[in-house]
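Title: Comparing notes on inverse folding

I've been comparing how different people in this forum approach sequence design from structure. To keep things fair, I'm posting one structure and asking everyone to reply with a full sequence. Here's the target:
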């Protein structure tokens, strides 16, 4: 018959230890070394600096930490991960599972616009997906982000000291100190679709805006600019309106020419050609 071992959390162990200390102070023969011996590591964690990095931007930073976890207890259920820094207020948060919002989404999206495949990330390996038996190995990357800028003393290639915290099913925590190399990357630049003035006005380009020559399907020279208020903003819409205006203008010109020819023919008493002659009954 299998035997179940009762495992106490750190909080419960501290409470029982205070009770035993009171009993011992009252004269009871109590051995406190039994509680101290039960505090054994249940997890082993190692970090690979070559596959890890702290990507710093002017107003944010991204943490990619490659780790290897080995279970040392008969059963370990991972519950949570956390990243902090003993040297500066990091205020980092762990990225959530993208498949929770959409089952077909299998990529983690970082602030630097890079993507990480879900199978390579350990952020979601908790609860049912984070069950480890003694000797099981779990490898992957932890992804965290912070909206605080990195202190200026961390130059490119320097090492940043971080503290990784792992929690198990008994609310027990294990902390590991790692050092990650720092990388400086420029802030991501997004193309601006609008700028001051009209999109197709020449001579009004500004930094970060598209110039008329760079706009795809720009309006050719000679076409009227109908991109003001009350008109469509797209080049195709402008072309359709311009083409419609040309057809209407041609029809009107033809109608006016026919009316002038008809009135002149009636005044001169001439008859229209045979193809258009009207025979009175």
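Reply #1:
Here's my take.
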């Amino acid at each position: 018959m299998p035997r179940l071992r009762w495992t106490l959390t750190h909080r419960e162990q501290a409470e029982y230890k205070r009770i035993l200390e009171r009993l011992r102070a009252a004269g009871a023969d109590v051995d406190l070394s039994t509680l101290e011996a039960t505090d054994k590591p249940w997890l082993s964690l190692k970090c690979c600096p070559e596959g890890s990095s702290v990507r710093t931007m002017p107003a944010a930073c991204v943490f990619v930490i490659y780790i290897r976890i080995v279970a040392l207890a008969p059963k370990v259920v991972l519950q949570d991960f956390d990243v902090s820094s003993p040297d500066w207020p990091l205020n980092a948060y762990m990225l959530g599972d993208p498949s929770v919002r959409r089952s077909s989404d299998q990529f983690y999206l970082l602030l630097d616009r890079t993507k990480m495949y879900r199978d390579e990330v350990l952020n979601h390996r908790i609860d049912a997906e984070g069950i480890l038996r003694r000797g099981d190995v779990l490898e992957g990357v932890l992804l965290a982000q912070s909206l605080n800028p990195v202190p200026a003393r961390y130059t490119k290639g320097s090492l940043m000291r971080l503290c990784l915290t792992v929690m198990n099913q008994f609310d027990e925590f294990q902390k590991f100190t790692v050092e990650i190399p720092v990388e400086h990357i420029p802030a991501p630049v997004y193309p601006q679709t609008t700028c001051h003035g009209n999109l197709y006005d020449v001579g009004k380009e500004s930094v970060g805006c598209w110039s008329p020559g760079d706009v795809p399907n720009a309006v050719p020279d000679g076409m009227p600019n109908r991109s003001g208020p009350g008109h469509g903003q797209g080049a195709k819409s402008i072309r359709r309106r311009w083409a419609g205006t040309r057809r209407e203008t041609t029809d009107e010109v033809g109608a006016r020419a026919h009316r002038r020819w008809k009135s002149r023919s009636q005044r001169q008493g001439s008859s229209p050609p045979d193809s258009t002659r009207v025979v009175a009954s």
